[in-house]
Amino acid sequence: MRTITFFNNKGGVGKTTTVYHVAWMLSQLGIKTLAVDLDPQSNLTSMFLSIERLEEIYEQELKLTIIDSIIPVVSGDPYIPVHVEPITENLGLIIGNLSLSTFEDKLSKAWLECLGGDIYSFKITSIFNTIINDAAKQKDAELILIDVGPNLGAINRAVTISSDYIIMPVASDLFSLQGIKNLGITLNNWKKGNYSVTTSH
Questions:
Q1: Structural domain count, the chain
Q2: Which CATH number do you get for residue 87?
Q3: Is residue 195 part of a domain?
Q4: Distance (Å, whole) CA 137 – CA 1
Q5: Which of 3, 6, 107, 199 is most exposed by smallest CB count within 10 Å?
Q6: Chain segment 99-157, per-residue pLDDT in tens
Q7: How far apart are CA 44 and CA 62, in angstroms?
């Protein structure tokens, strides 16, 4: 199993679209693939699912999104296995949720506390890794493709430490290049242990 996060802190570079098409391509090649929507805007989810399915999930408040596996852990309860939405035989989706953005502050605080050895905070910090491994086992996935939001916050930090590779989609403009520079500096700081959280849109 390999986990790949598509990440640039500049928006509009085709990150979500790339994840969508690459996931479809890999699944059509017979590779069991899992697409994970960790961008609170949930655009990847809306690309994969029909309007009818989206209305069913969100309006009826079915507990099928990623946040429904995060909330129990944050509340100190046991982990609830994440729902993997079947797209095709070889392709599954972890459904996004706009409420994921409310988890940012909690995750930032937990990051600092887990450095002091707090087990509860470690469970929160590693929740994305827990979810990804759970979903991969459920679907016997070979590749996990993750879409994240265009920022340098605590959610994306936790996701990148759960990833094997990072792909940085870019457009041919000055701000996309600046996004590469920002991300490179930030990833280096995270690796070295500079744990201050910065957010950039």
A1: 1
A2: 3.40.50.300
A3: no
A4: 10
A5: 199
A6: 888 888 777 777 777 767 777 777 888 889 999 999 999 999 999 999 998 877 788 88
A7: 18
Where in the sequence is the domain holding 116, given as residue range(s)?
2-188
Quick check: pTM over 0.85?
no
Q: Is the residue at 197 inside a domain?
A: no
Low-confidence ranges of the chain (pLDDT < 50): 194-201
Q: Could you give the CA distance from residue 135 to residue 116 in angstroms, rounded to a whole number?
A: 29
User: Measured between alpha carbons, how far is 87 from 121 in angstroms, rounded to an integer?
Assistant: 33
- 189's tokens: 């700081």
Instruction: Print the SS3 string covering the chain.
Output: CEEEEECCCCCCCCHHHHHHHHHHHHHHCCCCEEEEEECCCCHHHHHHCCHHHHHHHHHCCCCCECHHHHHHHHCCCCCCCCCCEEEECCEEEEECCHHHHHHHHHHHHHHHHHCCCCHHHHHHHCHHHHHHHHHHHHHCCCEEEEEECCCCCHHHHHHHCCCCEEECCCCCCHHHHHHHHHHHHHHHHHHHCCCCCCCCC
Closest CA relative to residue 149, chosen from 24, 43, 33: 43
Contacting residues for 48 by C-beta, under 8 A, at least 6 apart: 20, 35, 85, 87, 93
Looking at the domain assignment, is residue 196 inside a domain?
no
